[in-house]
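Possible regression after last week's pipeline update?

I re-ran a chain I had predicted before the update to compare outputs. Posting the input and the new output here so someone can diff against the archived version. Not blocking, just want to make sure nothing changed silently.
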Amino acid sequence: MKDASSVLIDISQVTSKALKEKKYLKSFPEYYRLVKVIENNLWHNNQNVLDHVIGVFRGLETVLQFKDLDLTRKKLAEDYLSQAIDQRTRKEILFTATLLHDIAKNETLVKQPDGTSGCPGHELIAAARVKKFSARFKLSKKDEDYVERIVRYHGFISEILNLIIANGNNKIYLKIFQETAGDVAIELVLLMHADLLGSDLKKNNSKAYTDRITTLAWMLGELLRE
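New output (post-update):
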């Protein structure tokens, strides 16, 4: 039997439906082990991470329909995602990063005495593990770098949203975000939107959810204007 790491996964064929039906259980077993990790906080109501990450992937499928954009910006977004980085397009790289963004939550779960739990530092550890999956997703070194940066900064954009919502100064924080994230800023906005859709935040705090969705829509509009 082939080792999972030697089996190629065609990211262009991966769907949330296939993930839910465990089509990649043999080729991507690390993903399905996330079912054992239960998070309980504002974003997750005792939600296992596997359900969350499948929900995020499904959310990204919805986000990339760009239903809230006018035709001009929708075309700009689609053209941007169709750009080739090396062997993979930006869209394929974003989907790969979405699959891997929470892959380190197995090792980073922390349970608190009050019953809440979370996974501090999972972004950096997951980013360091991207190279382990490069061959499986047929990533070149350049493709791998883009995936790694999206995974590494997917928590940073959440902090930027917190700062914008708490302090205003939208354009200042957007500039800081762009300077830090570089040329994966748009991908991070799209992933953050999908992450919200795969979370329980809307049920737990509808205002916090709406504030973040509204801010992300503004950020995407500004970034597509660049």
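Follow-up from reviewer: compared with the archived run. The mean pLDDT is 95. Marking as no regression found.
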